[in-house]
Amino acid sequence: MAFHYPNGTPYSNHETPKQKKQVKKHKSIQFGKRGMDFEEEINKSNAYYLLHSKAVVHKKPTPVQIVKVDYPKRSAAVIKEAYFRQASTTDYNGVYNGFYLDFEAKETQNKTSFPFKNFHEHQIEHFKQCLAQKGICFVLLWFSSLNRCFFLSGEKLVTYWSEQKSTGKKSLSLLTIETNGIEIPIGIAPRVPYLGAVDQHIQSNKGVVINDN
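Now predict its structure.
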């Protein structure tokens, strides 16, 4: 099935052979000794939070326009071609304890840094808009080769993104993320307990509130 961006460019043209290889390896991501998919574990964690009335967070659906469908059988349809109606913003949003949450999940196999190419300009702009409305924005960074997960605030990501345009840096060092982010220990239920990091972020940034009127 072929997917295209709103301008008609085939989606696959935007992926390097290395990126395609990484996509194929997503299912072999390791959380401890068990193969896991990072995004799937976040989805399960969100389901846990919803079940226990901790937060209401969902993955955003990506709007897709179907343009070609084949019917090999009367009871089945196969999508052959489709277009993304618009560029996606971030992966997840929801509400937690009166706070609006908006975040992205990213992963890398690198051991010493996180590439900026994993982020996109429209996502950074989306973060800026949400932060201007006093929402809580962040990224969950998964180092698959190290089995380590970090919370990095949207404010810091926006700052680093702006700096790399002038410095030419291609990535965020692991040391920078360790120093300025919050490491999330992988658990059991939920598997990715990111709300603990959100709480730390709120406590250290008292000005980041929604209901301040």
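The radius of gyration is 18 Å.
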